[in-house]
Specification:
By secondary structure, the protein is of the alpha/beta class. It folds into three domains: 3-84, Arc Repressor Mutant, subunit A, CATH 1.10.10.10; 91-167 and 270-303, D-Maltodextrin-Binding Protein, domain 2 (3-Layer(aba) Sandwich); 171-266, Periplasmic binding protein-like II (D-Maltodextrin-Binding Protein, domain 2). 41% of the residues lie in helices and 22% in strands.
Length: 305
Amino acid sequence: MNLRSVDLNLLVVLDALLDEAHVSRAADRLGLSQPATSSALERCRHLLNDPLLERGKGGMRLTAKAESLREPLKNLLADVVSVLDPPDIDIAALRQTVRIIMGDYPTMVIAAELHQQLAMKAPGVNLVIQPWHGADEALDELAKGSVDLAVSVFPKSDVSFQRHDLLFQNYLVVMRKEHPAARDFNLEQWLAYPHILVSGRGDTKGPLDEALAVLGKQRRVGVVVPSFVIVPPLLMGSDLIAMVPSLCIPQSSVKDYAVFEPPVPVDGFTLHIAWHVRRDKDPGVQLVASVIRNTLQKLDVQTGR
């Protein structure tokens, strides 16, 4: 292919069409007329020898080739922008929205500090924190460009992503201060009372149950909740027991809880922050990432957990 014959504007239109899967919405996003956008779609079809968008049930859908083009096209356009218009970074003057996928428990411990730091350093940077539905989905959203950062436990990432350690988390057993099991806590006491299990998918068993089964033991899961935020009030009003990552125990009311190491070996985990390599030089994204890293690492040192 002769690159001199390719209009780069077509690639900008194609990127919007693949994101929206809808000609009118892509036209509105780009400030173009619908006929001009339809014409650009036809030129892209000819250039790439593929329909790209096909009519399906309920609207247009992307062809397999179109799906395969989404990520490399976004990378290409990001590289073009960095070459033609390298940013002169003035953090305080940034006007940007940064989208983050993050679970509820890191969100609840850093959201206020994150907002305060950004308000001082970059008041024009807005945050959208979206719910976590698993590491695979988070990486997929990063690849598609629909989010900028993700905080989760990620496997070793491929070259398309940057992954950095935030902190190591161990698990702790927590119950209300006056819980009967707190007087002489041991394995049998732990298993004598119903447990809270946190599962966004409604699972009634987790890795801990497998570890207990190896020992010939089992627990009763009395309540399954979708969020760690729900755990503290449940503990305070019952004889339920929970096992949570250490940062989930509210520091403001830690005196109200009895906290123990699990009476069986339980592996901890490293929490990561990740972004797609196309965001490596995005000043707003990198600022938010650095504030998240510093906030969580400082909190980890302060709590000694």
